[in-house]
Write a structure and sequence with these properties.
By secondary structure, the chain is an alpha+beta fold. It folds into three domains: about 1-145, Orthogonal Bundle (Arc Repressor Mutant, subunit A), CATH 1.10.10; about 150-255, Winged helix-like DNA-binding domain superfamily/Winged helix DNA-binding domain (Arc Repressor Mutant, subunit A, Orthogonal Bundle), CATH 1.10.10.10; about 270-335, no CATH class. The chain is built from twelve helices and ten strands. The strands form four sheets. The chain has a three-stranded antiparallel sheet. Strand 5 and strand 6 (about 120-125) form a beta hairpin. Helix 7 packs across helix 9 (about 200-220), helix 10 (about 270-295) packs antiparallel against helix 11 and helix 11 runs antiparallel to helix 12. The longest helix is centred in the last third of the chain and has 24 residues, at about 270-295. The chain is elongated, with a radius of gyration of 25 Å.
């Protein structure tokens, strides 16, 4: 077995079909997998495909207790080796999308005496096509950044988001990257989340989505915001926006949040107090509109908020603004 060359800045390359693959994985397993992937120079052939991981590497990168590192390394390799990864591929011959079951490794070697030793794995040929000699449709991940995460879902979410980084159709001004609408059921299936606990969005959001975003924003090189996409009354997808940060984290490019509007006071219609309330709402909405345009010139205030804005204009007697806003509402409603 050939000794792998050490690289000063460890990186992980994966074909996008593998990034988007469906697999259930624990934290130790995904740490083991990504550490193993740093051993591969994906631009070159890998004649033997053997890669050795050492307990000290696991300790240094992930802050693992040295007492149990060798056991964690071995157990992670063994359990991951038994788990399939499913990819979804177009079959030209059959004119359909096939679900393809693969396994990560063809062999796993470690000290039979269970001593404090290394683990050597060999990636299977079925997986290797998404790891070796990659020319297109792949994603590069900075291992030093992603290794700071400590939940499997945060690893997966970060990887999915980074796969959009080089797509021209997703690039906006100020370095902003906006993803496609990512289906929530797709995320759960690809991350191997089968618990019925997360069937309701509020629990998925509370236990998986928001903790992962909080971690990624705090520990990695990107800052994320997100917005739900509804089908009827149900949230079924999410659009993520992010920027890659250089140096210290900044919130300068975070998507502006819709302001919380003051409640209408319990006053007589047409009173001075009602007028003051309407003007305050208009002021907040104007600033929100300006902030949205500064963030992305394609962003728009929702039709529902425009209708409220028109009603406020009616209260204060601003007929011109009311007419202009109602015209925009009509045009956007016709477009669907």
């Amino acid at each position: 077995m050939k000794k792998e060359k050490a690289r000063t800045k460890p990186v992980v390359y994966q074909g996008n079909s593998l990034i988007e693959g469906a697999f259930n994985i624990t934290l130790d397993e995904i740490r083991f997998l990504y550490l193993a992937l740093t051993k591969i120079d994906s631009s070159k052939p890998q004649p033997d495909g053997y890669y050795t991981l050492y307990p000290k590497e696991f300790e240094n990168h992930f802050g693992i207790n040295p007492k149990n590192t060798h056991r964690q390394l071995r157990d992670a390799a063994s359990s991951l080796g038994k788990k399939p990864v499913f990819t979804y591929e177009w079959s030209e011959k059959k004119r359909r999308i096939d679900k393809v079951e693969r396994f990560w490794f063809t062999s796993i070697r470690y000290d039979a005496s269970e001593g404090n030793s290394d683990v050597t794995i060999r990636f299977s040929a079925d997986v290797a096509e998404y790891l070796y000699e990659l020319k297109r449709e792949f994603t590069r991940l900075n291992f030093e950044v992603i290794s700071k995460l400590d939940t499997p879902f945060s690893f997966r979410l970060y990887s999915w988001l980074m796969s959009y980084k080089e797509l021209d159709r997703c690039k906006r001004n100020n370095g902003l990257i906006v993803t496609d609408a990512i289906d929530i059921d797709w995320m759960k299936e690809r991350a191997g989340i089968v618990s019925k606990t997360y069937e309701e969005f509020k629990f998925f959001r509370r236990d998986l989505l928001e903790p992962a975003i909080k971690q990624i924003n705090a520990k990695t090189d990107i800052s994320i915001s997100w917005e739900p996409v509804k089908r009827g009354r149900t949230i079924n997808a999410i659009i993520f926006s992010y920027v890659v940060e250089n140096g210290e984290k900044s919130s300068a490019f975070a998507k502006p949040l819709r302001p919380r509007l003051p409640r209408r006071p319990q006053v007589v219609a047409g009173s001075d107090a009602e007028g003051k309330w309407a003007r305050k709402c208009i002021g907040l909405m104007k600033q929100y509109k300006q902030d949205l345009l500064a963030y992305d010139e394609k962003e728009k205030i929702s039709v529902a908020d425009l209708k409220k804005w028109a009603a406020w204009c009616s209260i204060i007697g601003d007929k011109d603004s009311k007419k202009q806003i109602e015209k925009e509402v009509g045009e956007r409603s016709r477009k669907g």
